[in-house]
């Protein structure tokens, strides 16, 4: 089951005339590349309607956040940034992919260039030239097959399967999906990092998704309760189909809500509405509800589900445990919840590193060393607590 919409761009073919011009432009870049100090000059051919219209034809909404825009043009984003890589001053960017349509993703302004908000606070700069990896970066002009991008890629179907949504409209990593070995090795979660960098839980998105999820749940209830009335059932079915179709705005969240409502109904065994279902027992994202909700074997190196289970429940009696940290911008605060999530700027983050980077406005912070909490009157870092736990368990 795919939750974020996967875009199949394998059949994307620009007009021949565009391809010929692009080949000439690329030749110029190769000539310029010989001089390490020369600044690349790009002809912004990716902005042309011939390209944008073809990308829109593949999926007419932002490929990252699924927002549809009527009166604002989409950006054509380079998935691998063309002229720089954030945090790597010497990197000249993936210039050799500047005119490669396979590197283009349709994007809204917020995902590409920032401007999204959390309450009265800016949600950051958007994707821009950020392109962190879990391993080695490919040499200039070299093969990209072994690169492991942190940012989820809308054209990679396996990436789309990693994301789910809760009832409040927040995107999140599907809890039953195991972390990859590379995520464990780097102590970070690709979904959480993508949500953070692209502000996929900005106010606009969570409000839009939660309204949509509410509508879908109501329609599913109507469909189930009135299924003996063909006209009503047909109406509800049609509405559900239009909200969940691949091309509809935020339809990944709508599809997730439909499954959640049906699952809740199946479990209740009668016609009781699933409205009272909480996120935890609705097993959001669990196909058939059989997948384990507990942390995976190595998960405790990435998120806090194992750690919170080892803390006394009374520690959460005030609603959560205070976390403190200190970054470039000064002191930072967050709250560790009983389910292992960290509330930071009213955003539920699933991993300490993404929460710390959000709090500190710094893409390089390690959240395990950043956050401390007080245990028996003594401040201890999450890394310290984790290491103690791992040592205890052998
Ligand atoms: Zn977007």
From TrEMBL:
Region (Disordered): 267-296
Gene3D superfamilies: 1.10.30.50
Domain of life: Bacteria
Bias kind Low complexity: ranges: 272-291
TM segment ranges: none
Boundaries of every RAMA domain copy: 291-393
Name used for this protein in its record: RAMA domain-containing protein
